[in-house]
Fold these 3 entries.
Entry 1:
Amino acid sequence: MAKKTNAKREAFQKKQEQQGKNIVMWIIGFLIALGLIFAVWTSLG
């Protein structure tokens, strides 16, 4: 029974870790996009 619980816990941890990495990548991508938009906007102004 304990092995089954540990396996579920490990699977959940792996899933959470992957989701966390995805969120970090989205945030970094969003910041880069904002930086590019800002650079274009300042060069046009």
Note: The chain has a mean pLDDT of 94.
Entry 2:
Amino acid sequence: MIKKLRKILILAMAFTILIFNKPVKAEKFQRENSFVNAKGAERVAEIKRFQAKHNIAVTGKLDKLTKNMLNDPDYQEYDNVKNPPTKGKWIVVNKSKKILTLYNGDKVVNKYPVALGTSKTPTPSAKATITNLTKNPAWGGMGGKYTPRVADDPLNPLGERWMGLKIPGMTGYGIHGTIRPWEIGGYVSNGCIRMFNYDIETYVFPLMKKGSPVWLGTDAELKEWGVSQYVDKISNNQTKEKPAADKGQAKVEITPTTQGAQTDEEVKKIIENFVPSPGSIIIPGR
């Protein structure tokens, strides 16, 4: 009877161990985002915001680099800014990636996807400044090319915010909202920089002022000006170990001792067993 109870007890303990000590599967990494559970136009818009935030060319598509950034913790975005034009808030528009970056000095405040000019009406490259900021702007129709629109007109292509730019030798360019949010991430405008209405109204417009610097340029142009925006694997930025010496070679370091200096011949005798050609030994500093 005692043996039977003991056997039952052992089986019960084994069962308990199996139930409460199941191996826990490691949770799969996924970077913070707002699109995985979204659908339709909202999903595409959030993919564009995710890409902009991480210095990935804005397309709205889950391309390979976007998937790597989403699922691989070894990927990271980097911004290097040398000699910013101000210690305060300013803007960089990357024409290659279609990203607007809001900086505070050399630090990133945030990044936003934008739409830029077509190949026929390109967004100019320039070191500009903001010359005016307008809420609920009217639109003049580009000098009669299009039908002018008054403020608050639902067909006004400027949205509800306008930040005019002072560009040497050019007029009429600015950063503004849009009535065509699906075009963000494309080269579709007459040269102006379009943003999602919510982004410009909530995050960018309130922080800008007349005279704030705005740099517009391609990746290559921005790099020349001291602004690098890129993506890389963290492992690629670690210091690599120096390669080991080839077989048959030896690295010998001689350090002075406090017991008196050694002659050249004494030093050579110490290391000649480690070097293939003792006759060719060169002693640095001798």
Note: The first helix runs from residue 2 to 20.
Entry 3:
Amino acid sequence: MKKTGIIFALLFGLSAVSAQTIESGSRSTIGYIKSDGTIESSSRSTLGYIKNDGTIENKSRSTIGYIKSDGTIENSSRSTVGYVKKDGTVENSSRSTLGYIKNDGTVENSHRSTIGYARGIKKEWAAVFYFFFKFD
């Protein structure tokens, strides 16, 4: 797991269709998530996986983190690296605000600038990609 602070690389979510498109702040496609939890880059190469139990894996299937049902984000050693509050506020382990995931799917940094879109995607999952983990 690479803890990188704010990552403007990818975010993901589930869809009943074959894949959900993920967009950057400029609305360009930066990735996809398939209905089976496979996370893909914009060129469709596999970057990682999300399992139903909240386990996050890289492309080699090594566990790099966990998403708990209460919004707590943990690294592979089960140390807390952040939180996603019910209102969409994303905090680091010291409870400093890193950004926001709005109800309409807009992702903002701590200065309220839009950095991406995660429409129809769980807030916790979007936060993992924007603020805590990098898959490649």
Note: The helical segments are 123-132.
